[in-house]
Amino acid sequence: MGFFYSGGGERVALMQARLLRERGHKVKVFSSVVRWDKCYPDLLAEIAPERIIPKFPFYFPCRDASAMLASSLIPFRLRDIADCDVLVCQSQPSMWLGYRSNVLFGTPYVGYLHQLTTFIHKRPSYRGSWSTVADFRLLEALLGVFGRKLARQLDRLCHIRASRLLFNSLWTKKLFEREYGVTGEVCYPGIDIKKIPSQPKRERMVVTASRHVPWKRIDLAFQVLRRLQEPLPTLVVTGKETEHTPFLKQLASNLGLSRHVHFSGHLTDDELYRTFSRSKAYVQTSIYEPFGLGPVEAQSFGTPAVVWGDAGTKETVLDGETGFQAEPYDVDDFSSKLSLLLSDDTMWEAMSRNAQIWATSFDWESHIDLLEGALDEERR
Prior knowledge:
By secondary structure, the protein is of the alpha/beta class. 44% of the residues lie in helices and 12% in strands. The protein has two domains: 8-190 and 364-378, Rossmann fold (3-Layer(aba) Sandwich), CATH 3.40.50; 205-359, Glycogen Phosphorylase B (Rossmann fold, 3-Layer(aba) Sandwich). Strands 9-8-7-10-11-12 form a six-stranded parallel beta sheet, with helices on both faces. It has a four-stranded parallel beta sheet with strand order 3-4-5-6, sandwiched between helices.
């Protein structure tokens, strides 16, 4: 896993390392990119991942993409990586490194897959472009030079040769079955069961917690908000600001929503948990989300969630019981369901209780039980 942003996939990889260590396993973590100040600094310091290639001594554009490419093409530490009982590979380029370790040193590798490899399987245009970041544009350009077809064949080979594949959702599993003819088991990510009690009195506030990038479609949450009846709730948009944040702020202004949209910036875990516990609802408007930890985390604080009834988020919310699944991708339907949560207190209270119970099924212990068992069966 590349550690350059505090996202759900990064948290899963770091938590797997922490919990396997707590169970007595010796776990080393290797990465092509380690940005100590941008990806869960406290957790990253605890896990202490090692770089696959030396850190570049000076800044230059696209250094993250360059590090990923260098790790794939000239992995200086491949022998160190392969010196273990079994590898856990978190998507690409980790799967390629697992394949090479297996071919050269006989090391078995298990893939924990968050989504199809983005640079090879392009997102539909209505999901939003992922190439606004210079590093991603470089990778896409290189694919254009060397050929997406060849990259797809190599990517498929990495997955076919894996000892075992684990998927973060049933939806992700079905995608790999369709695209590559490979299958495996679903191993849902875990969440920290709430440490802060839910507040009995909720504010007229809605929260979304997603990375500020185009494909998360935070802009659709603004479209939902402007369709609600007055008085409009406050929409809290959490997350560290990125190159995409100024666009989102300008859009909110253009829609006349500046007074109703609050960009909180990066929140610590405790601050995020308190925001969940103060909110009346959680919304997730990203399209084709492979899983999404946000709705599950919010529900653990008794905050019902509204999501699209499609992709991985469909597996995180019980429609009509712990929140709503809106018709994909009907903004008017999404808005009407959110309006129900904000206006019907009796229904909200029942959903809040159900949400807290439902969220406990996504615990870290179950996740690690499955992962540990798979690794024990596949190790050499």
